Amino acid sequence: METLKFKTNIKCGGCVATVTPALNTLEGVSKWDVDTTNPDKILTVQSGDGLTAGEVISALKIKGYHAEKI
Fold this sequence. Notes:
The chain is an alpha+beta fold. It has two helices and four strands. It has one domain: Alpha-Beta Plaits, CATH 3.30.70. A four-stranded antiparallel β-sheet has the order 2-3-1-4, covered by helices on one side. 20% of the residues are buried.
């Protein structure tokens, strides 16, 4: 199990709803959460082996959001 963390611009429940389908369909994601109360809007992704930060960043970019691995 690996934990990936990202600084994002996902700032509200509507934003979370928009990215949910993209994150839920990524191969290897077992759980994810966005801390919208944190000023950096931290996305935490729990994954099995093989999921890369680039895949998460690309999935969010398609939905119009920015993510930077931290």
